[in-house]
Amino acid sequence: MSNFSDNPALSELVITHRGTVYPWQCDHMGHMNVMWYVGKFDESSWQILSTLGLTPQRFKKEGVGLAAVDQRIQYKRELHAGDLITIRSEIREVGNKSVRIFHEMRNDATSDLSATMDVVGVCLDATTRKTRLLPEDVRECAMLHMRSHGLGWNESLPTVKMSVAAFCNSISGQ
User: Fold this and answer.
1) DSSP 3-state helix, strand, coil percentages of the chain (rounded to 5)?
2) Which one of 37, 81, 107, 143 has the fewest CB atoms closer than 10 angstroms to its CB?
3) Is 141 helix (H, G, I), strand (E, B) or coil?
4) Residue 132 phi, psi dihedral angles, 5° rounding
5) Distance CA 168, CA 48 (A)
6) Is residue 158 over pLDDT 60?
7) What pLDDT was estimated at residue 155?
8) Where do the domains of the chain lie, and which CATH numbers do they carry?
């Protein structure tokens, strides 16, 4: 589903996770079990969401939440104990109440693409557990992120003259 080349030099995705595969994360066939791919991609999702202003502090303060409603993982190459990995991510779509994130996991030693995940998260009211609108500043940051990566071009957004994180911090007052 990715439109990115398998060449890591061509990938301009944001680094959201670096880690290693531990022996206890491997199954009886000797490679990392699928449950660990999901966990590492989940950690990456929270990292990229925090750059949009969706931090744990904000979730608590404003009673907002996010729930994954669709996850699609493609396994490309096996990972084994001791492999070092990097996950890179980007925002692919933003709606009024949802955000779609793409992740790619690579083996650092070989640059091989090991797995990808495409996930859709829906914004929730943490008390009622019903969907709600994404905060406007979060939507703006997500649109800026997409624009800076050549996705979702929108003429109404300001010209990118600073990093996405710096812009998002400036409009959210952080």
Assistant:
1) 30, 30, 35
2) 81
3) helix
4) -145, 170
5) 12
6) no
7) 38
8) 8-134 (3.10.129.10)
